[in-house]
Every structure is written in C-alpha cells, then in structure tokens.
Amino acid sequence: MLEDRPTAASAAPWPAAYPQGYAVVDVETTGLSRDDRIISAAVYRLDAQGEVEDHWYTLVNPQRDPGPVWIHGLTADVLEGAPLFTDIAEEFAARLDGRVLVAHNAVFDWSMISREYARAERTAPVRQRLCTIALSKELGLPLPNHKLESLAAHFGVVQERAHHALDDARVLAEAFRPSLRAAAAGGVRLPLLECRPLTEWSDSAVPRQPQSSYRGGGGAAGTWRPSRKRPACPYPNPGRYEPDKPLKQGMRVAFSGDTSVERELLEDRAVEAGLHVATSLSRLTSLLVTNDPDSYTSKVVKAKQFGTPVVDEAAFGQLLRDVAPAD
C-alpha cells in the first residue's frame, strides 16, 4: 500500500486571504487608444489554487478597420461575420463574474474590457485584477524582460501562436499556476488592484480607413498607420516627472529596451494622452520608460547621468490612465 505523503505545495497551508477563483484573460484589439475596439477575447477560468476549470474564446466584429493585422493576424474578412461585442457581452461577463481578472499588463486588458462594456451600457462584473508582470516582480523571477514569452520560457510553457488570444491566455494560465503556488508557499501578498468600471461612454473616435478599402497583411501598405512621423506635441514641456504625482501633458517620454506591448502601439497611446515621445534622451526628458533599468543602453546610461526619473512599462500603463492637463 502506497503511503500518502505531503507535497511541497501542500506542506504549507494555503493563504486564507487569497481569492477563490481567477479569470485569466487576453484580448486582441485594433490598437491602444481609448477609442480602439476588441477583436478577439479568451478566458481561462481557474480555481483558487490555479487549476484550469474551462476555457472560452470568441472573435468580435469591431465594425471598423482591424488595425495592426501584422500583429494579430485578424483581417476585416475574417472578422466580418463575427458577433458584435454586445452579442457576447453576457457570456463574457459570466466567465468573469466573481473572479479576479488576471492578465499580462492587466491595466491594458481591463481598460479595453471596461470601455467595451460602457459602450454596451453594461458593467463588467470584475472588482479586482492581478497583473502577472507585477506578480513576477513580487516573486523576484530572473526574467530578462517582461514579455509574455519570457515568462512562459521561465516556466517551460511552449507558445504556439503568439498574439492569438486563446493561445496567449493558455500560456498565461500555465505560467500563472506555478507563480500563484510560489506566492502561496512564500507567503507573498498578491498585487491585487481595484477595477473601477466606467459608468458612461461617449465616442470620439478619430476616423480611420473604412474596412472596404483595407488591404490586410503585413507591412505598412494598407494599414491604418500611414506614417511613423508624429506631429509636434502641442503642449509645452512642464519638466520632469515627480514620483507619486500624475504625468502632465507635454512631458517628454523616452522608451528603452523590450516592452510587452508592441513599442509603436505604446508610443501611440502616449501621444494620444498628450505626451511628447522623444527618440533620444536629454536633460529635458521628463521620464524614461524601461523594463531593464540595470541595462547599459545609451538611454539608461544617460538617464542615470542626468538623474532622469525611470519607471517600468506596467507603472507607465498605470500613469497613462490619469494624465493631468497642460497648464
């Protein structure tokens, strides 16, 4: 007769304060701005200890140009017969209800989801979210950067289709399980943040190419990015970013190193918030965004020389939610 022996995971009691269930989410979108739309969504439901209960995936017709097809691979033709968000809102909500939303760079996924529900004049049943980037930092994981592929590689999870919502959600669920158990074993407090739903919405979308004239596929031709040359920032530079204060329109922001969100989309989001995206770093730069502050890139080195404030991508995503208007 085999003797039951406690495993390492069961040796320590599970923290009573931990959530009772999780919804690991990934959404693909037409872009990063407040007027962009979800084009596919996936949810893996996990129990209190991270075991998979079920999963769900859907395409969503954004009723507009699908955006960076070279990233997500979803053309206007593929999305034409997909349901609208209002058609899948109830099922999506049922998958989220009563669970902590888990995502990689969760502030982005939550912002897109909450906006879609606001457009549909509904409220997503999510009260808390957990960002796996923040959790990996709490655990001190030796990752080279904060991309999902790096987190997956650390735990030996194989990615099959990067930027496909269902596969990204699967990969994240498989990487989250050992992360959650490591946190429980070490008595780590989970980095849970409150999710405040939008209660109203008004569209102010910038017109883009209609779907009928969209020519899908990779490269610049036929995309909604006619040029990478950006217009001059209309606001004066108010100076350096100060910790624990909001960003202010006109601040000069530089980026260095790898980011979990495509760099061009992250820069677009900064520009739409009224910030000046700088291609180099000088004494006038307000903030450097990097996930590798100990690297020796020229921007990081100059930031240390000039005393330029540095934040990581996840923190910058939080700051973008509430950029103060220019003086």
Secondary-structure map:
Layout: H1 8-11, E1 21-29, E2 38-47, E3 52-59, H2 69-72, H3 76-79, H4 85-96, E4 100-103, H5 106-119, E5 128-131, H6 132-139, H7 148-154, H8 165-186, E6 192-194, E7 252-256, H9 263-272, E8 276-278, E9 287-290, H10 298-306, E10 310-311, H11 313-319
Parallel strand pairs: 1-4, 4-5, 7-8, 7-9, 9-10
Antiparallel strand pairs: 1-2, 2-3, 5-6
Helix pairs in contact: 6-8, 7-8
How would you explain this protein's 3D organization?
The chain has 327 residues and is of the alpha/beta class. The chain is built from 11 helices and 10 strands. It has a 6-stranded mixed β-sheet, sandwiched between helices. Strands 8-7-9-10 form a 4-stranded parallel β-sheet, sandwiched between helices. Strand 2 and strand 3 form a beta hairpin. Helix 7 crosses helix 8. The longest helix has 22 residues. The radius of gyration is 21 Å and the shape is globular. 38% of the residues are buried. The N terminus is likely disordered.
